[in-house]
Amino acid sequence: MKRLSLLGATALVASISLTGCGMGGDSMDKSEEKKASTGSEARSSGLAPTWIPAEAKDVKVQQRTTGSERLLTAEFQGKLPTQCTTIKAKGAPTEAELKAAYALDTKTKGSPVADFTTSPLLSAGWWPQDQQKETTALCGRWWVSIKDGHVYGFAAETKKAADMITKERNK
User: Fold this and answer.
1) Rounded Cα gap, residues 139 and 156, in angstroms
2) Which entry of 40, 88, 93, 144 is 20 to 30 Å from 132 by CA?
3) Confidence of residue 28 (pLDDT cuts 50, 70, 90)
4) Considering only CA atoms, which of 55, 65, 56 is closest in space to residue 34?
5) Minimum mean pLDDT among 10-19, 52-61, 90-99: which range?
6) β partners of residue 35
């Protein structure tokens, strides 16, 4: 019995060593890019939110794998669906507008607006700098705009996670 316990303990130590867990290997600043040919494909796979039009093409999502932040773009000529709400001031949704929109999204529903960032920490070669300042609509938790035949969307990170990521980057 002692031999089995010793083997189990050895296996645990080996797995911790290999994964880096508990040894500074954990990082909040991880993301990945995923793509889909069409909006329909992106929605059915869960890559993109339901407001992405089915006819959108070349959907790209940069997503934080350790949090809620997302950047999205797709080729699209048209109007956003009715589930998206136009905001009064371009790039500056009010707290009331954010509260109403966030209440419609299962990932932000019930959370205070103040718990979320208003600009991305993620970046991607296809995401124009400060694109969130072009926001004209909110689609649930997504800040959305259409420009030059592309739809752009930004889903905010929690401030708690953003603070951890910023501290990590500043080490």
Assistant:
1) 12
2) 40
3) confident
4) 65
5) 10-19
6) 60
Instruction: Specify the amino acid at residue 168.
Output: E
Q: Record the tokens describing residue 153, joined without a space.
A: 């969307």
Listed in sequence order, the residues at least 6 apart from 29 whose beta carbon sits closer than 8 Å to its beta carbon are: 66, 121, 165, 168, 169
Residue 135, Cα to own-chain centre: how many angstroms?
Answer: 16
Report pLDDT digits (tens) over 46-88: 999 999 999 999 999 999 988 899 999 999 999 999 999 999 9
Report the residue count for the chain.
171
Residues 6+ apart with CB under 8 A from 100: 85, 138
SS3 80: coil
Provide the 8-state DSSP code for 132.
G
